[in-house]
Amino acid sequence: MGTDSVSEATTGWRRWRARVARRILPRSLLGRMLLIGFIPLLATQAISLELFYGNYLQIVSRRLSGDMATTISMTLDMLERYPSATDRKWILEDAGRRAGLVMTLREGESLQRRGSNHVLGPIDEDLARDLQASVRWPTFVDWKKAHRRVVILVQTPIGVLQVVALRKRLDVAPVWLFVAWASGSALLLFLIAALFMRNQVRAIRRLARAAELFGLGRDTVPIVPEGAQEIRKAAIAFNRMRDRINRFVEQRTTVLAGVSHDLRTPLTRLRLSLAMFPRTGMVRAEDLQPDITDMIGDIVEMEHMIEGYLSFARGEGAETPSVIRVEDLFEESVAALRRVGAQASIGFVTPPELSIMGRSNALRRVLNNVVENARHHATRIVLSAESGRKQVFLYVDDNGCGVEEARRESVFRAFESGKEGGTGLGLAIARDIIHAHGGHIGLEAGPLGGARVTIELPA
């Protein structure tokens, strides 16, 4: 029971955290990408500011304030050692000239305030601390009385020593300037990153819009690949998918139209045969046998056509891909051809252990359809294969009459049959399966004088 309670508490915490994150984080991809880029940039600038402020600026500030406190302390010691008015005047003028300061002794006055005015940065604290350590009398540092100057007041036994120094003697650079530089550079880099990210997101939005329109049945023009490499690949993949789906729909529409066209002929013959049957009188069975035989032939023809249509429409998408050895695939096809009396052989297979990844039954069907088509037009068939850089090429050569160049593309369409009684779906089914594997199938002139069917599959 305790374990269940802990599990429920953990699940509730996760749900609450996810709900809070959904409310805080931006919903758009652009907003999240900008957030991902802005947070590290802001953290980097903050770290660099802390490193500068906490190390370099503080070290330099301590050294400058220490030098100033030492100069004032030495001057006070000289004034105490030589108390005459002439010596004091000379000491103040000489020390001020050598140190670049303006020193004035206001005799009889007393110091009204102690400490210092606070300003941005560590310089005020460093100077106050060093003066307290070096000077044994009360001091006050006024950072705001004079423009770009610092007024240091020291209470002495005879009066107040006023030291006026340029602020740049103690301040390396205004802290706000560094903060502005860090913030400005961060903002500039953020705007540049936002511009580039906006272009990337725009390409994704176009892809999403095209996919939505295509899903609604509103066919669009192919997407122009743009943006990053991954987005370009996604756009190219979408264009290929769009072409395959359009081709799939076109082929299935053609099949439906062909079914009504091709089945009409045997159905008409059956109707005529039934209409010519004698309706009255005694009819001998042997007199009806020719008509019955013709009708059975029409039914067999219809079954053959329907089987071809179903095979074309069914596809091979449910089969699991596996590694197929090309030579084994060729040996099965060659053995099947030799059983029906065809002259078939295996040519070159380079390398000998060449293998491909695909659906074995579907590829066997492709090869059987191709070699069966070649068997009706040739007396010799040779199967070969070779490996390319990223593809595997399968060749089916025959010594037939070949195919005219104008018909090399149309023979892969549905119902394009070159023999009597054929459905014209064999090569159409083959092309459909090869395209589903991400490959290509084509016709060209072969080395045996006939046609060569080239099947290109991904390695």
TrEMBL record:
Presence of the UniProt keyword Signal in the record: no
Listed GO CC annotations: plasma membrane
EC number(s) from the headed UniProt entry: 2.7.13.3
Topology term for the membrane: Multi-pass membrane protein
Keyword Kinase on entry: yes
Reactions accelerated catalytically: ATP + protein L-histidine = ADP + protein N-phospho-L-histidine
Main location: membrane
GO molecular function, one term: phosphorelay sensor kinase activity
Keywords carried by this UniProt record: ATP-binding, Cell inner membrane, Cell membrane, Kinase, Membrane, Nucleotide-binding, Phosphoprotein, Transferase, Transmembrane, Transmembrane helix, Two-component regulatory system
Record's subcellular location: Cell inner membrane
Name used for this protein in its record: histidine kinase
Taxonomic lineage of the native organism: Bacteria, Pseudomonadati, Pseudomonadota, Alphaproteobacteria, Acetobacterales
